[in-house]
Design a protein that fits this description.
Strand content: 5-15%
Structural class: mainly alpha
Mean pLDDT: 80
Strand order of the largest sheet: 1-2-3
Order of helices and strands: HEEHHEH
Low-confidence stretches: 30-34, 200-205
Helix content: 40-55%
Length: about 210
């Protein structure tokens, strides 16, 4: 005569669920979804900055090597020309008597842009900040290493267009990057990839 033996039920007779199945995966940490995007945006920012910094440094070295002070090399008649100028001031020869302060401001801009770069999810913000960073680095190197000395160095400007003050690649990068950032702010595009009044969904690729 056989006796009924208790058996381990692999499934719940009521629901059919597997009693031994692992618990459902915990909800993903939202911060994990932002890290890859943040790294990509920081990489973009730094790549743009490095390219612009290298271009600025190269063009300044060429200008110093091949253009004599006071010489004007026409590009498009008298409208566009190369003219070597040593600028102690800010972009487009502004604040010429505050070289040391401008140096400190440029250093602060470089540090600030790098610190917020890893939090970016917006490609366009990364581009704009990369342009500002590349330009700030280009002029900062001049102020640190060119005549007459650290914190007092004069920036090399060499492009003259019409009535516009003489400028360089770094000046152009800073101005264009700043215009882009202002436009993004005006139209409501946030650095985290959202737009004013809207929120991105998890995993959504942001602009």
């Amino acid at each position: 005569m056989s006796e009924d033996r208790p058996t381990d039920n692999a499934a719940d007779p009521e629901s059919g669920a597997d009693a031994t199945a692992p618990a459902a995966d915990a909800a993903p940490d939202p911060t994990e979804t932002t890290k890859p995007a943040g790294r990509r945006r920081l990489t973009t920012l730094l790549a743009i900055a490095v390219v612009l910094f290298g271009l600025d440094l190269l063009t300044k070295c060429l200008a110093v090597a091949f253009i004599d002070p006071g010489e004007s090399v026409p590009i498009i008649g008298d409208f566009a020309r190369f003219t070597l100028v040593r600028n102690p001031g800010a972009a487009f020869s502004m604040a010429t008597g505050m070289t040391w302060l401008l140096t400190l401001i440029a250093a602060a801009v470089v540090i600030g842009v790098i610190r917020i770069g890893s939090t970016l999810r917006s490609l366009w913000w990364a581009i704009g900040l990369g342009m500002v960073l590349g330009g700030a680095l280009g002029n900062l190197v001049d102020r640190l290493f060119r005549y007459p000395g650290p914190l007092q160095g004069h920036v090399v400007d060499f492009v003259a267009v019409g009535w516009w003050p003489v400028f360089n690649v770094a000046d152009s990068a800073i101005v264009c990057g700043a215009i882009l950032l202002v436009a993004l702010t005006v139209f409501g595009f946030e650095p985290d990839g959202t737009r004013s009044g809207r929120k991105h969904t998890d995993g959504e690729e942001t602009a």
